[in-house]
Amino acid sequence: MPSIAGARSSPMSIVGGDVSSPQKRRLRSNSDLIDDSVSNTPSKTCSPLKSKSPRRFVNDSPNRSRANVETKVKNSPKKKLLDSFLDKPIWNPTDSEQLSAVKEALHVSTAPSMIVCREDEQKRIVEFCRQSLEQEKAGSLYICGCPGTGKSLSMENVKGCLAVWAKETGGQLPDNLAINCTSLSNTSEIFNKILEKGKPNKKVNGCSTPLRQLQQLYSQKQRSPDTKMIDQILYLDAFHLLSFKTRVVSRLVIADELDYLITKDRVVLHDLFMLTTLPFSKVILIGIANAIDLADRFLPKLQSLNCKPMVVSFRAYSMEQIIIILKQRLMALPYTVFQPQALELCARKVAAASGDMRKALGICRGAIEMLETELRESTCTSTLTSMVRVDHMAIALSRAYKSPIVDTIQSLPQHQQIVLCSAVKLFRRGKKDTTIGELNKFYIDICKSTLIPPVGIMELSCMCRVLGDQGILKLGQSRDDKLRRVTLQVDEADISFALQGIRFFRNCLQ
Ligand SMILES: Nc1ncnc2c1ncn2[C@@H]1O[C@H](COP(=O)(O)OP(=O)(O)OP(=O)(O)O)[C@@H](O)[C@H]1O
Ligand SMILES: [Mg+2]
Prior knowledge:
By secondary structure, the chain is an alpha/beta fold. It is elongated, with a radius of gyration of 29 Å. The longest helix has 21 residues, at 357-377. Strand 5, helix 13 (267-274) and strand 6 form a beta-alpha-beta unit. The chain has helices at 22-29, 55-60, 64-72, 79-87, 96-105, 119-134, 151-169, 189-198, 210-217, 225-228, 230-233, 238-246, 267-274, 294-298, 300-304, 319-330, 340-353, 357-377, 390-400, 404-410, 414-427, 436-449, 457-469, 492-499, 503-509; strands spanning 4-5, 33-35, 139-145, 175-180, 251-256, 283-289, 310-314, 434-435, 473-475, 485-488. The chain has 3 domains: 4-48 and 117-314, Rossmann fold; 55-110 and 318-401, Helicase, Ruva Protein, domain 3; 405-509, Winged helix-like DNA-binding domain superfamily/Winged helix DNA-binding domain (Arc Repressor Mutant, subunit A), CATH 1.10.10. The strands form 2 sheets. A 7-stranded mixed sheet has the order 1-2-4-5-6-3-7, sandwiched between helices. A 3-stranded antiparallel sheet has the order 8-10-9. The structure holds adenosine-5'-triphosphate (ATP) and magnesium ion. Residues 151-152, 256 line the site of magnesium ion. Magnesium ion (MG) is lined by residues 151-152, 256.
């Protein structure tokens, strides 16, 4: 039985968990059934996610002395200049406090101070809830999108926005129930949870199933809540007490990871959504899942009843969005940790693969660890200007996305890697194919620039054949080896990516 979490320090704890594998999420989710009545207290802003600012760490670090200097020169004419300097204290990757501040800023369970790139989606969800509450109507909404696209995070913010709306307008605040479906011991347990929420201190009637009881409850006119819902009032403050005495309260059920309820016969999913169609139902159901076509494929009966849930889909993050989100999270830090090109590389690769923000954050943290390892192993004492560079990011990325082709390229002998590097340089000039002879010229140039003795053209031709056998190059036919046409069979970006980690190739390809 999943535990009911009490007051949590941050609503982000429901979002937490830095992994996307179902197994790990299952573990993470065991305490994700949350009685949210407590956290429903309206806050002042419409951006209720609060995070520990990494600045706190920074202020405790040796840079603190700068703050003292700042107060002394408050009225100095040089203040502006000094301010701009103070705004960017020097990033010192050997300072463990600074390091943990950066890692925290990039941790999935750290709530961003503001959720960027999801404004439209959140607006649509808030609007749906607001309308259902104002009209005192039941309804269902289905939120879908790939992993790490900000669905759970946005939903946390939506709850806060509703609380603000209720406070500002005197609107009815729903009775919230957030369920992470992975924490249910069996799929139909969800009805138990919904029923228990309505009768928190009572045992569920043993004669009839929880689903049946819910169906009965929502099929008949509910009596005044001041007698019926008295138990729930205990969870709320005086403001909400007033609302309770005059209305039958709506129930906002947020079922996250709804994919776990997809059974062969889909009966649980169907019954769940059907609760919102019963004549006296006040259930506002929000289901969150990865399956994009759940509403079409799994709920055809609802469609025939004209009760198909409204759908809000969260598209995978684009490269630009990932950069914006990363920068927004790093903005809390008063120093520059990443080279812009490194962030761009991460965003490009993640956007091309999945658009999963959880992955992007993990990779950035991995890149910081690469820098740490480099500094630990380095004999050079000057570390103050060491930022996370493209090569750190490339290694972190290659660890995160071990593609077979990248693996193959990384394990090739050095001269074959130089051949591929030459091919990339050549094809960057707009050519679609070349000849072994022309490739040889580029190969020799690279060898010369790095003082590596080149092999002869016969050997180069052999290497091309080997690369051809591995499916990396394609070779045309010709009696003269020099004239054999060469084309790349793998993505140029995969070669650059695979070779980025080696400084020599990085310089070549820049
Ligand atoms: N717009 C954003 N701004 C800042 N951080 C974000 C944003 N979107 C996602 N994240 C980060 O990525 C993490 C994963 O997001 P979230 O848990 O909301 O994904 P999800 O869509 O619910 O994924 P899943 O389908 O796997 O449950 C969040 O904890 C947050 O740290
Ligand atoms: Mg989620």
